[in-house]
Design the sequence.
């Protein structure tokens, strides 16, 4: 079973038609049908009822699709978080200041540093 199989099964259930799902996925209907049959064979269960009017998930298929949606959703969320981390848009940044022989104010910061911080935050409308 591949991740692609999960996406294709979800799309087939959303469109209730292998033809429409295949069009959305930009693949041949026969390719989608073979993929779903292979997935059903791997799982040992029929996931979709196929009729002249389209396809719909079986009870087992609905259970599978619920889990597949969670897996795909969690994977996409993880990928988005990793992308923001790698671009430096999120995460944790720690800045340390080493001050030798300078007087510290009551907050524990050097007086010159605290003054600059206050000026900077006021200038940004905070």
Sequence:
């Amino acid at each position: 079973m591949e991740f692609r199989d999960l996406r294709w099964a979800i799309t087939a259930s959303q469109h209730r038609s292998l033809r429409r799902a295949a069009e959305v996925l930009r693949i041949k209907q026969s390719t989608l049908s073979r993929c779903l049959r292979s997935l059903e064979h791997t799982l040992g269960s029929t996931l979709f009822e196929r009729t002249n009017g389209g396809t719909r998930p079986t009870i087992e298929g609905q259970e599978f699709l619920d889990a597949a949606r969670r897996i795909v959703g969690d994977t996409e969320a993880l990928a988005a978080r990793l992308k923001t981390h790698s671009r430096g848009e999120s995460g944790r940044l720690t800045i340390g200041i080493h001050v030798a022989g300078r007087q510290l104010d009551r907050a524990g910061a050097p007086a010159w540093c605290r003054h600059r911080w206050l000026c900077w935050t006021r200038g940004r409308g905070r």
